[in-house]
Amino acid sequence: MKTKISVILFSLILAGCQFSKSVKKDLLSGLSSSGDIISCSDVYISTGEERTVRNSFIFGETFFLNYNDIQGFTKENGKVFPGMEMLVTGEDGDTMLFAKDLYESDVEGVSFTPLRLISDITVATPMQSGKEYFLHARIWDKKGKGTYSSDFRFSITPNEDVKVEASDVTFREAYVYSMGYEKVITDGKIKSSDNIYLIVEGLQGFKVENGLVFPGLRLVATDAKGEKVLDYPDFFSQYDQSGVSPIDFSSQVSSHFKITGDEFNSPLQFEMTIWDKKSKAKIIVNTELIVE
Predict the structure, then answer these.
(1) What residue numbers bound the domain in which 244 lies?
(2) Cβ contacts of 283 within 8 Å, gap of 6 or more
(3) Of these four, 153, 211, 263, 275, which has the most CB atoms within 10 Å of its CB?
(4) Among residues 128, 157, 186, which one ends one of the domains?
């Protein structure tokens, strides 16, 4: 009889744990989630409108962490009051991104049903391509004791459409940035009349003379028929005598352009050359952009 009683008690305790706690894991993406009081029927990663099981993203890309049909919040006057914290750390544990509460401004609560919460993460500076990161998200009930957490490991890869040839220099990132969209371009598509930047970060290897570097920067673009649509011989010609701070130069070097009119054949091929006027160091960045 003692043995039977022990088995029955153990079964009751186990059932109680399963009722208040939930655990989910996507074996393909590695996204894992667990809840205490709060539960969620569907947790997944998406890019834009598409669900994905990827755990690797292009530098500058944005992915979304989605929670569909969340249950277990305490209701007041038909509304719930969620909090959501986001933390991204690097391989050495350094904080890359931290948001204390993405729903801090929702002081009136939310009433939509089923309850859905979404957060987005853009994998850009200070994060770097070629490295791995750890995302921890925590949801909590501001009117109760329920919590729900998710963990996700992901890596960042450079954009293969931005090709780089480096000679006697090193760099951290090379990418295309749209001022109009306020984001890194990862699909090779830009808008006419938008302010576009070709950017290189962390450029090292230029010769320092009297605490200064002396770079040159040329930007050339040709259309699909090989016609040259722009050619800036040297963005840094004004600094031939005065030079540039090596700290500012290493932080970020960019060329800015705007494509207007329609007298060209898309796509356009861009080539940016940054060279050292005091040594043989240089870097060449090539990319193709479709003007929509």
Answers:
(1) 162-291
(2) 164, 165, 166, 167, 169, 171, 174, 200, 203, 273, 274, 275
(3) 275
(4) 157
Is the residue at 110 inside a domain? yes
pLDDT bracket for residue 15 (50, 70, 90): very low
Question: Which residues, other chains included, contact 292 with Cβ-Cβ below 8 Å and sequence gap of 6+?
Answer: 189, 190, 191, 192
The number of distinct structural domains making up the chain is 2
Polymer length in residues for the chain: 292
Give the SS3 label for residue 14: helix
* Three-state DSSP state, 4: helix
Q: For residue 32, is pLDDT > 90? A: yes
Q: Are residues 103 and 217 in the same domain?
A: no
Other C-beta atoms closer than 10 Å to the C-beta of 51 total 12
Question: Has residue 6 been placed in a domain?
Answer: no
Q: In what order do the strands lie in the sheet with 50-52?
A: 50-52, 39-47, 62-71, 116-122
The amino acid sitting at 5 is I
Are residue 37 and residue 142 in the same domain, yes or no?
yes
Per-residue pLDDT tens for 138-187? 999 999 999 999 999 999 999 999 999 999 999 999 999 999 989 999 99
SS3 280: coil
Cα gap 182→172, rounded to integer Å: 20
Structure tokens at 172: 């951290």
Residue among 63, 39, 41 at smallest CA distance from 53: 63
Phi, psi of 29 (to 5 degrees): -90, -25
Q: What is the mean pLDDT of the chain?
A: 90
